[in-house]
Amino acid sequence: MNDNRKVPKLPSVKRLPSYLHELKLLRDQQQQMVSTTYLAQKLGLEPIIVRKDLELASSTGSPGVGYSVQSLIDGIENFLGWNNETPVVLIGVGNLGTALLGYRGFAEYRFNIIAAFDNDPEKVGSSVHGKPVYHVDYLHDFARNMQIEIAILSVPCEYAQKAAENIANAGLKAIWNFTNTTLNLPPDIVQQRVNMAGDLAELSVKLSGKLWND
Amino acid sequence: MNDNRKVPKLPSVKRLPSYLHELKLLRDQQQQMVSTTYLAQKLGLEPIIVRKDLELASSTGSPGVGYSVQSLIDGIENFLGWNNETPVVLIGVGNLGTALLGYRGFAEYRFNIIAAFDNDPEKVGSSVHGKPVYHVDYLHDFARNMQIEIAILSVPCEYAQKAAENIANAGLKAIWNFTNTTLNLPPDIVQQRVNMAGDLAELSVKLSGKLWND
């Protein structure tokens, strides 16, 4: 890792899509410039945090003028690698997988699920929400041909580890794990876990007054 | 807040459902006892972290014997308030709302979406994945009659703030926010945000090598 480059803070990274969302709304309204104060208010943050976050997009605002909306959008998309469409695949066309195939919210971030994979003969060869479902044995060749790096994992828990190993063996580099399972994989495979049950636990405990609301 | 009670750490709280999941698998296999080492390995954590986490469930393991599986399940469910079914409502029966209504994964945590609300005349009066869809104007009475405290918010972003205010005015206490919007609400309303776009940003940046994988 290059010592001259700061390692970005995770909370800042996770907030970038929220800035992007607000900035695109402003662009739709033909707004050219935006102030730190506006973004701070929209995201419920302190202005100092906003300035710090936006350093990741290599943008510095001008005092009294603010930031250029388009430059900020470009800077954030460039930092995240979201300036081009990212093709991804989904493994496991069950209840959750089907829901994710039908979810259009990923498009805002140019994530496009281009195909799904399963091993159920009744599903293979079908199309779900317009996406083709292939047999998992075809994943390796498909990922190579289509240069896919990211797989969404939505199989039942008991198959999660095996399916994740298949994904790694097929040469993919990252797994977005929607299963309630901790995966044991080589360290060069990037893992991102969606922990909806953890969110629910946090909400339950906040509601009971045992944990402060943030 | 009672000074004698420790405030639980958020990461520990968010891990509790993962313990619960593993413990229920063990119970299904008629296992009576479980070791720290086993849970640590399953969750990819250090044993010392596991012991600390499980203190929240008021359980202490015995050296050489481990924890009682059933006591741990009871302790965690009791701590989270998950020993009874939690009835929740969903606001906004669009693409994502429909997916959530069809998602069966909440049942493991006894979260039951008993009704959905929308203001689209074409949706009101219908049933989606077996759940009735009512007009939002009926939320106040319904929530009061059914003693609902938690709403899942899945409306389009531009309606999120208004819908959240409606939920607060209807007397509900917590919002699980699936929209990409920061909500401005009274501090006594518990908010929990699902930030899938933030997860995607984290994954993208890890994949680019700008952020360490954890």
Specify the structural class of chain A: alpha/beta
Gyration radius of chain A, to the nearest Å? 20 Å
Largest sheet: number of strands, sense, barrel closure of chain A: 7 strands, mixed
Please tell me the overall pLDDT of chain A: 89
Q: Which stretches of chain A are poorly predicted, pLDDT < 50 over at least 5 residues?
A: 1-5
Largest interface in this structure: A-B, 66 and 67 residues
Number of strands of chain A: 9
Q: What are the secondary-structure elements of chain A, in order, as H or E?
A: HEHHEHEHEEEHEHEEH
The amount of helix of chain A comes to 40-55%
Strand adjacency order, main sheet of chain A: 5-6-4-3-7-8-9
| Subunit arrangement of the protein | homodimer
Number of helices of chain A: 8
Terminus-to-terminus distance of chain A: 34 Å
Structure commentary:
The structure is a homodimer of 214-residue chains. Chain A is α/β, with parallel strands linked by helices and 214 residues long. The first copy, chain A, has eight helices and nine strands. Chain A has helices spanning 10-28, 36-43, 47-54, 69-80, 95-102, 139-146, 157-169, 196-207; strands at residues 33-34, 67-68, 86-91, 111-118, 127-128, 131-135, 150-153, 174-177, 190-193. In chain A, strand 7, helix 7 and strand 8 form a beta-alpha-beta unit. In chain A, helix 1 (10-28) crosses helix 4 (69-80). The longest helix of chain A is centred in the first third of the chain and has 19 residues, at 10-28. The relative contact order of chain A is 0.09. Chains A and B meet through helix 1, helix 5, strand 9 and helix 8 of A and helix 1, helix 5, strand 9 and helix 8 of B.
